[in-house]
Design brief:
With 342 residues, the chain is an alpha/beta fold. The chain is built from 12 helices and 14 strands. It binds S-adenosyl-L-homocysteine.
Length: 342
């Protein structure tokens, strides 16, 4: 049985037509599902009773269930969700002033095995369906009675390795009949999946694109990220240029600062060169500790010098104050069930 939250509004219109119902029901259903927080079909009070029963028979409802939550004194909150098949994913809510950013997962586990990240340590299980991606956000919205203002696809998994479902989730969140979340409030982060970047460019939506760069040197990047062998830096950067040429929003480079590996002024200069050419922003993230991984963050002074060097070169750069480290909710620490217990 299909989860009704897997369907875009166009698909839902089609489904209603196939049931012999008017297409406008899709807009009404979207309002119930995404605005009014309905969790059962019998809450669709402007639908005739027999239609509600037929929906009940045709669709399942609600794909993620909160299992456990941890909250950090800095306000960051990590929720472990159980999926219908018993798998788990983690989602992080990051409040900051008026903003409520949700960091959602797109896969159970990850195939890409980046040397610094916890999400790939347990291997890859499966893609999340659109309803499971959107469901993480809806569940948090209902729990706190406030809709997230921003969504970052930066949780477990590689969003552009699950591109069809990611794009559907983006369209579902974006639909004005539902949450109506503006594309410019969504950010897709990728380890550099070239066909995915190009596909995102063709959508013509104002989604923000983040590239997990971590080194501006092809050989060093390859040591950290096996995906660099398939899509070397030059190809990733070419895809970024095409993305911008297709009218995409500004690109951000995520750069984990790792002590003694990519934190010298020479590394900063190389990074500045690349960022400059693409007019990209740089977001520096001091390495978050992951149990069993042999890396550390540089000291605070080194991080600040690296930042200053980028800025002197005219690059818009920030040093991220990583949040939620105390509850293992920081960048790179999400690992599903094992993550919460570790
Ligand atoms: N697969 C996508 C989405 C995950 S985003 C991607 O790679 O972009 C998660 C972000 O956290 C990425 O920028 C990732 O590189 C970063 N990250 C992973 N492990 C980290 C760690 N131990 N410390 C700090 N950042 C980390």
């Amino acid at each position: 049985m299909d989860d009704i939250r897997d369907l875009t509004i166009e698909e839902l219109r089609e489904a209603f037509r196939a049931m012999g119902e008017p297409a406008y029901r899709a807009g009404q259903a979207f309002a119930w599902l995404y605005r009014k927080g309905a969790t059962r079909f019998d809450q669709f009070t402007d639908f005739p009773r027999d239609l509600r029963v037929r929906l009940e028979e045709r669709f399942s409802f609600g794909a993620v269930a909160p299992e456990e939550a941890l909250e950090s004194p800095d306000g960051t909150r990590k929720t472990l969700f159980r999926l219908a098949d018993g798998e788990f994913v983690e989602t992080v809510l990051i409040p900051s002033g008026e903003r409520r950013t949700v960091c959602v997962s797109t896969q159970v586990g990850c195939k890409f095995a980046c040397a610094f990240c916890a999400s790939g340590l347990g291997g890859f299980k499966r893609d999340l369906r659109p309803g499971e991606i959107v469901g993480q956000l809806l569940s948090l919205r209902d729990e706190f009675d406030a809709a997230p203002t921003n969504v970052v696809f930066m949780g477990m998994g590689e969003p552009l390795d699950n591109c069809d479902n990611l794009v559907k989730a983006v369209r579902i969140l974006n639909a004005p009949e539902g949450l109506g979340l503006a594309a410019r409030r969504m950010t897709v982060s990728t380890s550099g999946i070239v066909p995915g970047i190009e596909r995102l460019g063709t959508l013509g939506m104002q989604i923000n694109l983040s590239i997990s760069l971590h080194s501006a040197d092809d050989e060093k990047r390859g040591r950290l990220m096996p995906v660099n062998r398939k899509y070397p830096l030059a190809e990733v950067l070419k895809a970024c240029r095409n993305y911008l040429a297709a009218g995409g929003r500004m690109i951000t480079f995520e750069y984990i600062l790792i002590r003694g590996f990519n934190d010298t002024s020479g590394d900063a200069d190389k990074l500045a060169g690349i960022a400059h050419r693409l007019k990209a922003k740089v977001n520096l993230i001091p390495f978050s500790p992951v149990r069993g991984l042999p890396f550390a963050a540089p000291d605070a002074g080194t991080c600040r010098s690296f930042l200053a060097r980028l800025r002197e070169a005219g690059v818009a750069a920030t040093l991220r104050q990583s949040k939620g480290g105390d509850i293992r909710a920081a960048c790179g620490q999400l690992a599903g069930k094992t993550g919460v217990r570790s």
